[in-house]
Amino acid sequence: MRIAIVDDIKEERDKLADVLTKQLSRRGIHVNLFEFENGEDFLIAAKERPFTVVFLDIYMSGANGIETARELRTFDSDALLIFTTTSTDHALDGFKVRAMHYLVKPYPENEISDLIDEVLSRIPDSGKYIDIKVNGSNVQVPFRHIIYAEHFSHMIHIHTTGGKELITRQSFEAFTASLKMDPRFYLCSRGVVINLDHAVDFDGALFILDDESRISVSRKLVKNARQTFMDFLFQRGH
């Protein structure tokens, strides 16, 4: 995920960057943060490679945040735009450039936490991935490629599309932190999580996945698993 923070006050940029990094790493999400002190430099960078989320200060010297946002929207209609400001006077202008949210300074951390949950729910599927270490190298695994993952002997075995298996050393809790926020993932037991997008059937005790794996559900979750799967299929059909 690429995030831009555009603010002419360095202290404000650093403060926001710290909070975002902390909140996203708590959710197990890898992020590349870029800071810009003016709209002009930001727009040059955004034309080269788009940003997923843009935090844009409204009151800046030079081109202000609204002008910068208007220019951004001429070539990028997808970036999630969040205005950081000391006042909401420009709410109507923000609406015109499809701003997702206004953060009024100083921003409370719980508001940023809620905002990040909303951002993650809006990012297109292609933008969601988990960052893991495999044999000392960082690997980004898109959510949609994960069929299921299981935890044993302090290792997580991630079974992905194309018949690949990735093994990483991590706690199951840390690994599933970001997956649990995505409705596709279901914890079948204390050490197994599946991607419901790859589930083809539930026979009352286990899920059958599209790679022909059969994943048992802990006995106390059987009723919940059936309901969750039915709800998921219903949502997917709409």
Question: What would your notes on this structure say?
Answer:
The model has no long low-confidence stretch (mean pLDDT 88). It is elongated and about 60 Å long. It is an alpha/beta fold and 238 residues long. The strands form four sheets. Strands 2-1-3-4-5 form a five-stranded parallel β-sheet, with helices on both faces. It has a five-stranded antiparallel β-sheet with strand order 10-9-8-12-11. It has seven helices and 15 strands. The protein has helices at 10-26, 39-48, 65-73, 91-96, 109-122, 172-176, 222-236; strands at residues 2-6, 32-36, 53-57, 80-85, 99-104, 129-134, 137-142, 146-152, 155-160, 164-169, 185-189, 192-195, 199-202, 206-209, 214-216.
